[in-house]
Amino acid sequence: MVTEEGIVVKLDKKTAIIRTSRKTACESCSEKHSCTSIGSGQEMELEADNPINAQVGDRVTVALKTGKLMTASFLLYIFPILMMIAGALLGDHLAKTYPSDPSMMAAGLGFLFFFVAFGLVKLKDMQAKKSGGFRPEIIRISKKVRP
C-alpha cells in the first residue's frame, strides 16, 4: 500500500481534496508534472475518498492499494506497447496472406493498435473517474483540527 500524508483543503460529498508535499518518489516519475502542482511545484493536490469524515484542516494519511497502482501503471505503460507488438505481428502475417510490403503493413497496424490502446486507456480513465476505481482513500486522521 502506498501512503502519503497531507492536509484536507476542501470537501465534496464523499471525497476530499488533500494538499501534500512532493516526495523523492515523485522525482523518478515521468508523469510528475501532470499532477496538480501548487506554487513552486513542491506541493500537489489530490482527490481522495473520505470514509472517515475528515474535515478541512485535518492532517490525514492517504493510501492507494498497490494493486491499483500496478494496474494503472500497466494500462499506461505496458498495454500500449503490447498492443503495438500485436498489431505489428498481425500486419506481418496479413502481408504474407495479401500481396503487400510486410514492413509497411507491420508498421501501419502496429501504430494503429498503439493508438487504439490509448483510446481504450482513455475510456478506462473516464470509467475510473466516474466510479472512483483508482482514487486513493483517507485511512487515518493524524491531527484533527479543533472545532
Describe the structure.
The protein is of the alpha+beta class. Helix content is 45%, strand content 27%. The chain has a 6-stranded antiparallel sheet with strand order 3-4-2-1-5-6. It is rod-shaped.
What is the count of β-strands? 6
**Helical segment tally?**
3
How many domains make up the 3D coordinates?
2
Helix content: 40-55%
Query: Largest sheet, order of strands side by side?
Result: 3-4-2-1-5-6
Rg from alpha-carbon coordinates: 21 Å
Beta-strand percent range: 25-35%
Low-confidence stretches: none
Assign the CATH class of the largest domain.
Answer: Mainly Beta
What does the main sheet amount to?
6 strands, antiparallel
CATH homology superfamily name of the largest domain: Nucleic acid-binding proteins
CATH-defined topology of the largest domain: OB fold (Dihydrolipoamide Acetyltransferase, E2P)
The helix/strand order is EEHEEEHHE
The computed structural class is alpha+beta
Look at the structure and give the mean pLDDT.
85
Distance N to C terminus: 31 Å
Which CATH-level-2 architecture of the largest domain? Beta Barrel
Shape verdict = rod-shaped
